[in-house]
From TrEMBL:
InterPro entries: MFS_dom, MFS_trans_sf, TM_effector. Residues 1-386 form the Major facilitator superfamily (MFS) profile domain. One of its GO terms (molecular function) is transmembrane transporter activity. It comes from Actinoplanes italicus. This is Putative MFS family arabinose efflux permease.
Amino acid sequence: MSFTSATPRWADVYLVATGRGISVCGDVLATFALALVLQEAGHGGLAVSGLLLASTLPIALLAPLAGRLADRVDSRTILVVVGLAQSGVCAALAFSTHPVLIICLVTLLACGLALTMPTISALVPRMVSRADFPRASGIVASAGQIGMLVAPALAGILVGQTGQRLPLLLDAVSYLGLVVVGLLVRTRRHGGTERAKAEAAFRLRDDRTLLVMTVAVAAVVAGVSAINVFDVFFVRETLGASTTLYGLVAASWTAGMLLGNPIAGRLPERRRTVGTVLFLLGGACAAVLVGGVVAQSAWWLVPLWMLGGVFNGALNVTTSVLIADRVLPEAHGRAFSLFGASVQAAGIVGFFVAGPLTEMFDPRVLVVGAGAAGLLAALACLPLVRFQPPPASRTTMRDEIGDNVAA
């Protein structure tokens, strides 16, 4: 198996969850704080769009390299070195004012995130048994979502009260917390033997189940990610909501994700399939579709967006379990990195498509269309689903290689 047979190391799970929360919060905090700084300095939408692109594009482009490094370099080395580098980048950002320099530094920050994300994801299966992994994955996912939930509000408060420098210096200090986590976590991935590395060569197309899952998730994300552009116009202009209510609507999706994580952890093993992934994708899209059709006030969106978030949170845990269970331990970094990159790339496509559409159509039509497009994408993948267990050769190889857990 690809999970440790030793006593679960829950202390390590919570430490890694803390590291994930710090990493995500730091990246989002820096992006939002700098977006506010650029906007207040009079820079146009091109600069802000460039900033947002710089914070996501490296994760997609560096996936093959980042995955290999996560599998072949000591996990402690990655977390410590990258954490120190990100801290230095944030310190430099605190004193940067030129938009081109800011975008370049944010790109470096995202390069660090491209490395730490698969490293942390690949560590978790080594800490717990197969039965405990859904719960552990939910804990780590929740930490990242809390970071995403807290960061935008924190950025707004700090930039509004103190300006650019303090939030980014605090962000630099927070990345040192990732260094501490890397030093304290007892579970480590050292990379396997040369034989194990050769046999663990990972190609997504070799596993039909993971390929269908990745295509389905990416297709839905491409359709639905445009919601991030549409909803500000839908909530603020069509529904006439205040900025406070808009923030509540935006936060309700993430709050729902926090509820969805433990729900997925309680799913029986026979329900952790690509069919379940498609059902969860469809549920999230249906919530968006219904919200776009029926909402006459922004308050209607709060429970619907929370419901969509529940499906989204359960989806994150279910996909993590499927990847960890079907891929050799030595290739976990590559598998998680490629899956994450596919989702990021799809989100970027949706972001670019959304911009011109906002100038052409009514916001309600766009929200309904995005929800319907995502639902149709999930349904279109149903004929591709073929339930199959991991190949016998992989199960045998897992038993032969062992779990590579360091004390």
